[in-house]
Amino acid sequence: MRTLRIRSSADRRVLDEAGGVRAMTWVMAIMLFLTMLAAALGLATAGAARLLDRQLAGRLTVQIVDGDPVRRDAVATRVLAALRGMPGVSKASPVDRADLTKLLQPWLGSDGADPQLPVPAMIDVDLADHDEIDAARVSAVVRRVSPAVRVDRHESWMSPINDVMRSLTLLALALVLLMASATAAVVVLAARAGLETHRETIAVMHILGSTDLQVARLFQRRIALDAAIGGIGGGLMALLVIAFVGIQLHGLGSELLGGVTLGGVDWVLLALLPVGFVVLATLAARVTIVRALRHIL
Length: 297
Hints:
The chain has about 300 residues and is α+β, with helices and mostly antiparallel strands. The chain has helices at about 1-15, 20-55, 70-85, 95-110, 130-145, 155-195, 200-205, 210-250, 255-260, 265-295; strands at about 60-65, 90-95, 120-125, 150-155. It has two domains: about 1-55 and about 160-295, no CATH class; about 65-145, no CATH class. It contains ten helices and four strands. Residues about 1-20 have low confidence and may be disordered.
């Protein structure tokens, strides 16, 4: 009975480190908060890049540039007929003049609606197979109709934006790994500090028959509890911030920024991050304490 009372008292001394608990909890909350924000950025930009790829793959815009409206409309009619007769084209539709006027309004104002303004005629084209061969075939066919025809691939002028999104995704992944490494380092320092603080207590526990693994369990249980409390607080705050930013982006009405959203799988991955941090903190504490006990005790 005396041995059990001494061991119980030692357990409480090891576990009850009030200042360390508060500090560790706050550190874990802040680290997880920042990690979840970085992970949300990476997941959202990766999803937006995939959506952009799907939207732009195999899409072309054919422009008929001619100052004479009559000749321009005649060429547009012939080009549209040629496109709709091609087997590699799944859809070809002319862009309405009113839509072009709306696009020009920020720069030209009401002058964009002037029927005498030499605005090119445009035709949106969707390719069936999304490959380079069909795109080259479309360019060759329409240019045979008239030299005033230009073919623009959406992928070509949107590729810089796609590259930026992929760079942001890689940067976010690097930040997540960096924050995970920093969290493990903080846990290692906290475990070593706790070991030094309770060195005499641990020595008594060894005399009473406690093993290194039993001592390590005390520390990993304390650190796991701190990580869980901090993870819940930091995780909930991060989810609220992410949801708020998502609502703000959706309210802008931009097709490009509106694609920077999180799907169902993304939310599940974010929700699993606190669990991963608790596991990481527990393993880091266990490995640190066991190795330290083997060398110093």
